[in-house]
Amino acid sequence: MKKQTIVKALAFGAVAAVASTPTFAAIDLTATTTAIETDGTTAITTIGTTMIALAGVAIVFKWAKAAIFG
User: Fold this and answer.
1) Which helix (H) or strand (E) holds 44?
2) What is the spatial distance between Cα 6 and Cα 15, in angstroms, rounded to a whole number?
3) What are 43-56's pLDDT values in tens digits?
4) Cα–Cα distance, 31 to 54 (Å, whole number)
5) What is the pTM of this model?
6) With 90 as the cut, is the pLDDT of residue 68 above it?
7) What is the rounded CA–CA span in Å between residue 62 and residue 55?
Protein backbone atom coordinates (compact mmCIF):
# COMPACT_ATOMS: atom_id res chain seq x y z
CA MET A 1 0.00 0.00 0.00
CA LYS A 2 2.76 2.44 0.92
CA LYS A 3 4.72 1.53 -2.22
CA GLN A 4 1.65 2.29 -4.35
CA THR A 5 1.31 5.73 -2.77
CA ILE A 6 4.97 6.49 -3.43
CA VAL A 7 4.64 5.41 -7.07
CA LYS A 8 1.54 7.59 -7.51
CA ALA A 9 3.32 10.54 -5.91
CA LEU A 10 6.33 10.09 -8.19
CA ALA A 11 4.10 9.80 -11.25
CA PHE A 12 2.20 12.93 -10.27
CA GLY A 13 5.49 14.77 -9.68
CA ALA A 14 6.79 13.74 -13.09
CA VAL A 15 3.60 14.88 -14.83
CA ALA A 16 3.65 18.16 -12.91
CA ALA A 17 7.29 18.76 -13.83
CA VAL A 18 6.62 18.15 -17.52
CA ALA A 19 3.49 20.29 -17.50
CA SER A 20 5.22 23.20 -15.79
CA THR A 21 8.11 23.56 -18.23
CA PRO A 22 7.45 26.21 -20.87
CA THR A 23 7.24 24.93 -24.41
CA PHE A 24 6.75 28.24 -26.20
CA ALA A 25 8.59 29.23 -29.34
CA ALA A 26 10.84 32.26 -29.23
CA ILE A 27 9.06 35.44 -30.27
CA ASP A 28 10.83 37.63 -32.80
CA LEU A 29 10.67 41.23 -31.60
CA THR A 30 13.21 42.81 -33.94
CA ALA A 31 10.61 44.51 -36.15
CA THR A 32 8.76 45.89 -33.14
CA THR A 33 11.96 47.11 -31.51
CA THR A 34 13.06 48.79 -34.73
CA ALA A 35 9.68 50.49 -35.12
CA ILE A 36 9.83 51.80 -31.55
CA GLU A 37 13.37 53.08 -32.04
CA THR A 38 12.59 54.91 -35.28
CA ASP A 39 9.05 56.11 -34.57
CA GLY A 40 9.57 56.58 -30.85
CA THR A 41 11.78 59.63 -31.25
CA THR A 42 9.18 61.32 -33.42
CA ALA A 43 6.38 60.52 -30.99
CA ILE A 44 8.32 61.75 -27.96
CA THR A 45 9.29 64.95 -29.79
CA THR A 46 5.66 65.58 -30.77
CA ILE A 47 4.39 64.98 -27.24
CA GLY A 48 7.09 67.20 -25.74
CA THR A 49 6.38 70.02 -28.17
CA THR A 50 2.66 69.79 -27.44
CA MET A 51 3.24 69.89 -23.68
CA ILE A 52 5.48 72.96 -23.97
CA ALA A 53 2.89 74.67 -26.19
CA LEU A 54 0.12 73.94 -23.68
CA ALA A 55 2.26 75.30 -20.86
CA GLY A 56 2.79 78.47 -22.91
CA VAL A 57 -0.94 78.82 -23.49
CA ALA A 58 -1.58 78.38 -19.75
CA ILE A 59 0.96 81.11 -18.93
CA VAL A 60 -0.54 83.52 -21.47
CA PHE A 61 -4.04 82.77 -20.13
CA LYS A 62 -2.88 83.39 -16.57
CA TRP A 63 -1.20 86.66 -17.61
CA ALA A 64 -4.30 87.85 -19.49
CA LYS A 65 -6.55 86.94 -16.56
CA ALA A 66 -4.31 88.86 -14.17
CA ALA A 67 -4.24 91.85 -16.51
CA ILE A 68 -8.04 91.95 -16.84
CA PHE A 69 -9.10 91.19 -13.29
CA GLY A 70 -6.12 92.77 -11.56
Assistant:
1) helix 30-69
2) 14
3) 888 899 999 999 99
4) 34
5) 0.46
6) yes
7) 11
